[in-house]
Amino acid sequence: MRGGFGTSKNPGLKHQRYTKVTKKTVWVDSSASKYYNTMRPSGKSEKLYQRGPYRHAQVIGYNEKRAKGKGSAIFLHRRTSASNYTMGCVAVYDSSLVKLMKWQISKDVQIAIHA
After folding, report:
1. Distances (CA, A) of 8 to 22, 23, 29, 81, 98
2. 100 CB-near residues (< 8 Å, 6+ apart)
3. In sequence order, which residues have a C-beta less than 8 Å from that of residue 79 and are 6 or more positions away?
4. Contact 35, 48 (CB under 8 A)
5. Residue 27, SS3?
6. What is the pLDDT of residue 20?
7. How many CB atoms lie within 10 A of CB 33?
8. Is the dihedral angle over the CA atoms 3, 99, 96, 79 positive or is it negative?
9. Looking at residue 105, what is its pLDDT?
10. What confidence category does residue 87 fall into, taking pLDDT thresholds of 50, 70 and 90?
């Protein structure tokens, strides 16, 4: 698990960076970009200002070497009633997500999720 982000204030993540996103904040998912698989203050990639799923969210540390074509933007985020699909992310109820974020007691955390 890596840093958190969201449209709301930090729910209690203490040992990792938390970014309150703006309407311009994006996650660069284009492998052609030098910023591939990173959060940027603005751009033309996935908009992170989404009050539904990204009220609170956390980055899952995947493809951190940013190898082109290996995938990007995998998050642990809030489950919404709008859809049961996550496009590759992991979605949990907001209360569970906040508990997980508060529970983390170091900057290096691994979480196993069992279905």
Report:
1. 10, 12, 23, 19, 12
2. 58, 76, 92, 111
3. 53, 91, 92, 93, 94
4. no
5. strand
6. 98
7. 16
8. negative
9. 75
10. confident
Structure tokens at 84: 């049961």
Rg (CA), the chain: 13
pTM of the full predicted structure?
Answer: 0.87
Residues in the chain: 115
Smallest CA-to-CA distance from 63 within 6, 15, 2 is with: 2
User: For residue 14, how many C-alpha atoms fall within 13 Å in the half-sphere facing its CB?
Assistant: 7
Task: Decide if 3 contacts 21 (C-beta within 8 A).
Answer: no
The CB density around residue 57, as the number of other CB atoms within 10 Å, is: 25
Helix (H) or strand (E) holding 65: none
What letters, b where the CB count within 10 A reaches 16 and e where it falls short, cover 80-110? beeeeeeeeebbeebeebbebbeebeeeebe
Tell me which residue of 102, 13, 82, 2 sits closest to 27, measured CA to CA: 2
